[in-house]
Write a structure and sequence with these properties.
Number of strands: 14
Bound molecules: iron/sulfur cluster
Mean pLDDT: 91
Low-confidence stretches: 1-28
CATH topology of the largest domain: Rossmann fold
Largest sheet: 5 strands, mixed
Helix content: 25-40%
Shape: globular
Structural class: alpha/beta
CATH architecture of the largest domain: 3-Layer(aba) Sandwich
Radius of gyration: 21 Å
């Protein structure tokens, strides 16, 4: 029934083009029925039709009932970038790695319902115990940055680099990547990093090899390498859109003298922040502290006072003195939450019209309701499973990261 239903709204070409530009932060905080979410037509459609028109109040009541039935058999995780109407149901909120680690320690939990995006649920599955099942409420919740590193493109780039005689390269993948790329790093002497530990991981990589291939986020890679004192002249950018044989747009000599080869990926959310926004914040509030995520572009990070992971941003603002002012360059749901939770400080987003992460936003409460009610009725929907061999190698790369001090 549900998968064959035709969604009733008419969607124009403009709607399609503007899905990523939907900016619901200025709308009421209350949950809108799923069918009134403008971009629903592009999301996972096999959610049964009765869920499409549930009101916020109905969803809250039904989620509470499903959770009561499930008890400690299910836990709900909420990434920092999830909307408020999802975070209210989360047993724990945090960054992807913290959530995955915590979930694996909740041995009583048979179901880990991960309100985040695809690569996060994969990581949770890799780290989970054999009796645990990871559920991603909406399978179409992906990550545009992770999608910029298609595994086949990375394997092809690796082959090109080897054929060009560059050996001793350590592959380093950001957590925001497919499980198969984490496995690739595991197999090839590489490692995973998060935005919290990227510097230590790069130091580890240089203890084990002469060069690093860093993917998918060029900005995190560049910002971290600069902190290690590696000049821009010793970094190359690998343009994965160029045909095989193009060496990613560099010459063999340029690649040979590069210590870091940066995959040309980026986060569409953090790419929007600009130096002009930093300057505008300083002009408006001369005593403001500008704090950005290292997925922002190099010039933005350099113009800021501080940069760090979502955990770092949250902790820094929570511990700041009353009356302090913070211009924050990260996803708007987290910034808005920090502003609400720190009423004694001024916390605002660097970009006054910044959009939420449009793929995170696909976890509408109706999907969570559907997933939990299905579990309560003994049906497992949206069970995310990483293939065994992939999980084994990916875990090796993750364990190398955990061993880095
Ligand atoms: S904020 Fe950026 S990196 Fe994070 S999930 Fe969204 S697109 Fe991916």
């Amino acid at each position: 029934m549900a998968s064959t239903e035709v969604f009733p709204l008419e969607i124009s070409e403009r709607d399609i083009l503007n899905e990523a530009n939907e900016c619901p932060v200025d709308r009421p905080v209350e949950t809108q029925p799923l069918s009134q979410e403008h971009a629903f037509a592009f999301w996972q459609k096999d959610i049964p039709q009765p869920y499409w028109d549930l009101t916020g109040a109905e969803i809250i009541e039904r989620i509470a009932e499903a959770r009561r039935k499930l008890g400690s058999r299910a836990i709900v995780l909420g990434h920092h970038y999830q909307r408020e109407d999802i975070i209210q149901f989360a047993d724990l909120r945090g960054d992807s790695f913290k959530l995955a680690q915590w979930a694996s320690q909740q041995e009583q939990a048979e179901y880990i319902v991960f309100c985040g995006v695809h690569f996060m649920a994969e990581a949770a599955d890799i780290l989970s115990k054999p009796h645990q099942k990871v559920i991603l409420p909406n399978m179409s919740a992906g990550c545009s940055m992770a999608d910029m590193a298609d595994p086949d493109d990375v394997y092809a780039a690796w082959d090109e680099l080897q054929a060009a005689g560059l050996t001793g390269i350590i592959p380093v993948t950001y957590m925001n990547s497919a499980a198969s790329l984490k496995a690739f790093c595991g197999k090839n002497g590489g490692i995973v990093c998060t935005s919290s530990n990227a510097r230590k991981v790069l130091e580890w990589a240089f203890e084990h090899g002469r060069q690093v291939l860093f993917f998918p986020d060029q900005h995190l890679g560049r910002n971290t390498a600069l902190k290690l004192g590696i000049p821009l002249e010793e970094m190359a950018v690998w343009d994965y859109t160029l045909p095989f044989g193009s060496l990613g747009g560099s010459t063999a000599e340029q690649l040979e003298r590069s210590r870091v080869i940066l995959w040309k990926g980026h986060c569409s959310v953090h790419n929007r922040f600009s130096v002009a926004q930093v300057e505008a914040a300083r002009k408006r509030y001369p005593d403001v502290t500008v704090l950005v995520h290292p997925e922002c572009r190099m010039e933005v990070v350099q113009a800021a006072d501080l940069d760090g992971s979502t955990e770092f941003i949250s902790k820094t603002i929570a511990e700041a003195s009353a009356g302090s002012k913070w211009a924050v360059g990260t996803e708007i749901n987290l910034v808005s939450r920090l502003a609400r939770e720190n009423p004694d400080k001024l916390v605002f987003c660097l970009d006054p019209v910044v959009c939420p992460c449009s793929t995170m936003y696909r976890i509408h409460p109706a999907y969570l309701c559907w997933a939990l009610e299905s579990l309560a009725e003994g049906r497992v929907v949206n069970h995310l499973v990483v293939e065994e061999e992939t999980a084994r190698w990916a875990k090796i790369a993750l364990e190398r990261m955990l061993a880095v001090r």
